Amino acid sequence: MLEWELFRAAVTKLKMRNDEEKTPIYKRPGSSSSQLDTTNKLGEDDDEATASWASMPKKWQLAIIVLSWFWENAAMGSRGTYILFQLRMFKLPDGSVPSAASLAFQVSLLSVAIAIPQLFLSPILGVLVDSPRVGRKKVLLMSLFTTGISWLGLAFCNSLLGVVACHLLIGLANNKIAVMRTIVRDISGEKFESRAILLMPTAFNLGSTVGPLLGGILSDPVRTYPNAFVPGSSLTWLLERWPYALPNMVNGIAMIICAILTAFQFEETHPGKGQRSLSVIPGWAKNLGRRLPWGGYEKLSTEEHERIEMAGLREDDSSKADLAKPVAVSIWTRRLIMTLFSNGLMIMHVGIFPALLAIFLSTPRYDPTEFSSAASTSPNATDEQSTAANGVLSVPLNYHPHAPFVFTGGLSFKPNNIAFALAIRGVIGLLLQLLFFPYLKRIFGLLRLYLYSLLVFPVTYFAIPYWATVPSATPPPLPASGALLWIFIAITLSLQTAARSFVTPASRMILNAASPDETSLGTVNGIAQSVAAAATIVGPLITGWTNGVGLRQGIVGVAWWTMSGFAILNAVAGAALMYESRRGEKRKPSIQGEP
């Protein structure tokens, strides 16, 4: 009797092993898809109860990803506070200072320089990320190290051409975001996705808070802290020669440290990492050896044993082999295409917002007395425009501002003022994502929350230019100030940041849900990164051109109202995506978020 029970147990174990070998990797127990199936059966309420931060797997792996993305955004945030002033150091060929319109075009050019390499490399890197021979770690390591070198080079640029070259190199390595999202999805699976998806936006908001403050503190330190430097010393000469080198050096060193941590502390998360063993024998030699008729005995595999028991029917064997092969599924579904289109529009206006905001904040204020005195001193002028005494802000001749749209000028903010305004976005976004996103996702559902967030952007973009019309406690050309102005700034930025904080993680989850297969996540994220790069190219070109036209015509809000139009189109695309998802296509219950 005991022998019979042992025999039954052995047969059951052998059958389970055979079934597991025939099951695709992404469906096996322990994989993210297997967890998805189990989780869906338990229900969404059970998921929220069990998927806590404390039970999150591989926290150290996620910590490295969060740290790397934090410094990536801290570097870009600090850059936003001083890049306009760094570009202003580079004189035009005639020796003059670039105008506000020229600076806006140069900033747009830098955004395009970052996006162009992403447009062409993202699909290639997406395929490499999904390849077991390359995987996630190698691509991430290369990107982090290249980014660090780029920031160190940016610290000592002496011309606009050098700055553009460094930004091209940053764009070459900026495909890491698709890799990071894929890694987070590998680790979290479906069960922890609603929490793990917040890690990247949280790191973004932390970086968006710390970065501007860091840039404002470290920019031009000799002038900001004159008592801290000895006149004539080597350090003083270095920081006077390159006044914005210090924040760039900090960013570069931080990214290289993240690369070192990735090299020595990060483990590969590719689902097929265990399928390929390292060997000095080439794969073609192994296959050749298997095909040669060798003599002797060998242990039959389970599949070979079953084939013998079934009387050697070759037809059945071939059909089993066909079933064992993974089915090629096209990723180009209607839902994925609509998701990419909606996300591309979203990135077009959300991505350019910080740069356009920094341009607007640093644009000189309009001073009617300055322009009237300039016109009176040159009554015979025949130019199309009259120019302010500082040679930066220009308006047409006989210009008279009037409501509701004809007004010009910015707020004349300095790097520390810009840093404070940008830090407001980071703090608000961090609190909203951590405290309210999971709660609102359960109430509205993911798609509805995504659509409602998109509706906020057009209102905020339309209102921002009117900051220039708020009464200030200081006269121009001094930076604008006053409690009423900062209340207006805080309210508008809070609304924009709230919308961005909710739409960013929602868009990532919707994109993951649109992927037809777990093993194609890297490819889908790579394609999404290319779409984002294309949007990042088109967005700055349009806003840079419209901002220059608006400033020359004395209408500072042209670029902002153009962006508001793109945001309206994005909301329409989001509504169409929501309608498409409700049409009969298969959706994951956790992504739908609705009963």
UniProtKB/TrEMBL annotation:
It is found in: Membrane. The keyword Metal-binding does not apply. Keywords: Membrane, Transmembrane, Transmembrane helix, Transport. It holds the Pfam family MFS_1. GO terms for molecular function: transmembrane transporter activity. One of its GO terms (cellular component) is membrane. It is a multi-pass membrane protein. Residues 22-48 are annotated as: Disordered. This is Major facilitator superfamily (MFS) profile domain-containing protein.
